[in-house]
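How it folds
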Amino acid sequence: MKILNANLLSWLIDSGLQEQRAKLYLVALQRGRATASELAKEMKMNRTAVYDNLRALEVKGFVSVIGEGRRKVYVPLHPSNLQRHFEAKQKQLKELLPDFLSIYASENAAAMVQMFEGKYAAREVYEDMLRVTKKEYVYFSPPQLTHLMVDEAEMKRWIARRVKKGIQSRSLRVRGKDVPKIKEYNETEPYLREIRYLPMYVDLKATIYIYENNIGVISTTHEGHAFIIHSPDMAYSMRQLFEFLWSVGMEE
């Protein structure tokens, strides 16, 4: 068997192929077309194992079978078609994503925590909110600090997307803190937002969003992290706490 390209082998494995099947595909690619017996001899494998792996590759679209008289010949997917193959998979995933998310957001799904760090950490929370939220989310916010964690232009686009989807929001803020003079952050009715204020002695060091069965947490630039906590019980408890504080919060 010729030496296989390590980069190609690694990429195929990372793309979801078992190592033995990835090697079999590359060997078939080297030969162009071959019978199972020829491939078994090339790979020094028994024919039963080769047949099993070829069937799996055929199901995944990496090889096709051509009948030549009484024998079967296996033809590998042409390299130029690999991109189309994975684009089709990506399109299929995009179509199935709502179903995956409905499982992820279900009442019975196990609790889990995702942590993000770096420049785009906060973006992960905001995108999850748009995917999951049906009607409304609520949040505790220190806008003067959150503003430092997100790009202003990007945040304005996100708010426009939220409004377009008809998602309402209610915000508990701390009165007296410096808030950026940006209408998208502060105006209420045009942006489907209600705001109430906590007493001035209350301080917040992170923004906490409660949406459906999730809690999103965006820390300050000092920590530079964001978290998504999926827990129906915790989200319910946090929402109860929010509703109590909302009931005693002060309006303008």
Q: What stands out?
A: The beta strands are 63-68, 71-76, 112-117, 136-141, 168-174, 193-198, 206-211, 214-219, 225-230.
